[in-house]
Write a structure and sequence with these properties.
- By secondary structure, the chain is an alpha+beta fold.
- The protein folds into two domains: 109 residues, Pnp Oxidase, Chain A, CATH 2.30.110; 106 residues, no CATH class.
- The protein is 23% helix and 31% strand.
- The strands form two sheets. It has a five-stranded mixed β-barrel.
- Helix 3 crosses helix 4.
- The longest helix has 13 residues.
- The C terminus is likely disordered.
Length: 228
């Protein structure tokens, strides 16, 4: 954890009411955003995690609900303006730190589009925002969202297909390596069907549980048992 503060970014929110200006700036340890299309344009934000005081977190929580714009700073990059858009959701909590009398307040905010990537949600969608670019994680999350019949051994092949078809793009990230995957359930099923027909991939010889070895940033989801 040495020099951990150097890996933090910051999130700033400014609100002007008549002659009063309120400016709040907090530490940020996670961010997912799409790169702005223009040099000084606004980026579509999908996720951020910040820490602050009671008043700071309460103000940011209200700003998320209002669809406000924020100024995000990532180490090594120029600041960008981001917005989570309408129907974003946020969750507040507390982090207790040894030696401090009061806990630090924590806020996690997610865009409506990111919320649709949860298992079984919006199965007609054609865009999936993912927290990590690991091939196994990408295939696992898509299989959970769309109900795809897959096995971990197909992860490398599937990642190559995404890249070959230009269906995966890197996103702006802090504390993570997010990607945007483009494609519907029908499209991915078509890839799987053709690959099986041409024997590019193979079905397991034995029918049984499937174990996924996912990145350690998701220890609670390190394994999943299901049938292909």
């Amino acid at each position: 954890m040495k020099n951990a503060h150097e890996r933090f970014g910051s999130l700033e929110f400014t609100k002007r009411v008549k002659e009063t200006t309120t400016r709040i700036r907090v530490y940020m340890d996670r961010l997912i955003a799409e790169p702005p299309r223009e040099e000084r344009g606004t980026a579509a934000g999908h996720f951020f995690s910040v820490f602050g005081s009671d008043a700071e977190v309460a103000a940011l929580w209200a700003a998320v609900i209002e669809g406000a714009f924020f100024q995000a700073r990532i180490p090594g990059r120029p600041p960008i303006a981001i917005s989570l858009g309408p129907e974003a959701q946020s969750f507040r909590g507390s982090v207790t730190i040894q030696g401090r009398n009061r806990p630090i307040r924590h806020l996690v905010a997610l865009s409506a589009e990111l919320l649709k990537t949860r298992p079984g949600a919006d199965r007609e969608g054609k865009r999936t925002i993912l927290y990590d670019e690991d091939p196994a994680f990408v295939l696992y999350r898509l299989s959970r969202r769309f109900g795809l019949p897959v096995v971990p051994e197909w992860s490398t092949w599937f990642r190559r297909e995404l890249e070959r078809r230009r269906a995966i793009e890197p996103l702006l990230g802090l504390g993570c390596s997010p990607v945007l995957v483009k494609g519907s359930k029908e499209r991915f099923l078509g890839w799987i069907g053709k690959a099986l027909k041409h024997r590019t991939i193979f079905m397991p010889e034995v029918n049984g549980p499937v174990s996924w070895n996912l990145p350690q940033v998701f220890p609670q989801k390190s394994t999943d048992t299901s049938k292909p």
